[in-house]
Specification:
By secondary structure, the protein is an alpha+beta fold. It is built from seven helices and 13 strands. It has helices spanning about 15-45, 50-55, 65-70, 80-105, 240-255, 275-310, 325-335, and strands spanning about 1-10, 125, 135, 140-150, 155-165, 180-185, 190-195, 210-215, 220-225, 230, 260-265, 270, 310-315. Helix 1 (about 15-45) runs antiparallel to helix 2 (about 50-55), helix 1 crosses helix 4 and helix 5 runs antiparallel to helix 6. The protein is globular and about 75 Å long.
């Protein structure tokens, strides 16, 4: 049974800067391949060239462009090959998902991939093979990077960085369970996300069952086969965070008028936000992270409590479409979905 184990990492400033650099390069590769994909797309539309379609629409067409790019752009060699490969595969997967959606009715919401902004979203580093490119000794995680020039010998060597897990691994964790590793960043915090394959729990007879109906006045209301009614309250503590988020959004939006227009070397224009805008945006990202983690903790606590009392839990869909009596009510409903 595949599952995910997310662990907080303790990294120093030097290691954080290195991981940011690796993510920037992977993000650059994604955007560069997307630029090539856009060109191939226009070429295929006009000429129906099968070679263009082979590169663009096959699973490994764009990935096979990476070795040639590493010769043209030597800085790509400083990133581990698995990270570069998965950046290309991620783009190919998005293109194939778009093509599949075009053939299915009602799936027009899937659009063509867009260029990624690294400042807006950190590009994760994916090592997709078990214990290849990373090693774990106790709580010390060693991650391999690309090749750099050794000043002493003048030859290339494999670079590595080391981080430490902030908490000990759970008791059930075993090295043989790990299938891949992904390093992500949320706000200013780094996480190691292990994909593990755990044994399927033994089947047990189903006795007590509860069906839960989500609402906007509470998180859910359910009745079990034992005749006991259960009401689950909304996470009341999130209202304080929502209020603070609204305040920071208002302050940040006022700083837009102080943005400066910048003309790049290629003639394109961009708006550079003010220093205060960037500072408020960092605080806002941190509040979103705290809100997300508190929501996960609350839902997991509720799930553990329910499964201690019932053998089966069924939850209905809650998909509000903007209804509600007042503006505050509509906003609260849409935030809870």
């Amino acid at each position: 049974m595949p599952s995910v184990l997310k662990m907080l990492l303790e990294v120093d400033e030097h290691t954080a800067a290195i991981l940011d650099g690796q993510s920037r390069i992977a993000n650059w590769l994604y955007n560069h391949l997307l630029e090539e994909a856009n060109t191939l797309r226009e070429k295929f539309r006009s000429t129906q060239d099968p070679e263009a379609a082979k590169v663009l629409y096959t699973e490994r067409g764009l990935r096979d462009r990476v070795p040639a790019l590493k010769k043209e752009r030597p800085f790509l060699r400083t990133v581990y090959s698995s990270v570069l490969k998965n950046a290309a595969l991620r783009l190919s997967g998005a293109i194939r998902k778009y093509q599949k959606a075009r053939r299915e009715k009602g799936a027009s919401s899937v659009g063509w991939p867009k260029f990624r902004s690294w400042k807006r979203e950190w590009f994760s580093l994916q090592y997709d093979e078990p214990w290849k490119g990373y090693r774990l000794e106790g709580r010390k995680l060693e991650v391999s990077l690309g090749k750099v020039l050794d000043e002493g010998t003048g030859k290339e060597k494999q670079a590595q960085v080391t981080a430490r897990l902030a908490e000990p691994l759970p008791d059930w964790f075993e090295a043989g369970m790990v299938r891949q590793l992904r390093i992500v960043k949320e706000g200013k915090l780094f996480y190691a996300v292990f994909t593990v394959r755990r044994p399927v729990p033994a089947r047990r007879s189903v006795g007590r069952v509860i069906a839960i109906d989500p609402n906007h006045k509470n998180l859910g209301y359910g009745v079990g086969t034992d005749g006991v009614a259960t009401e689950i309250q909304n996470p009341w503590f999130l209202k304080i965070l929502d209020r603070r988020i609204d305040e920071l959004k208002s302050l940040r939006d006022r700083c837009k008028r102080k943005s400066v227009r910048v003309v790049r070397e290629d003639g394109t224009e961009a708006w550079l936000p003010s220093r205060r805008w960037r500072k408020l945006n960092e605080r806002l990202d941190e509040l979103w992270r705290v809100r997300r983690e508190q929501t996960k903790t609350y839902l997991r606590t509720v799930a553990n409590r329910l499964y201690r009392e019932y053998d089966g839990v069924f939850v209905g869909d809650y998909t509000p479409q903007g209804g509600g009596i007042s503006r505050g009510m509509r906003r609260a409903m849409n935030n809870r979905r």
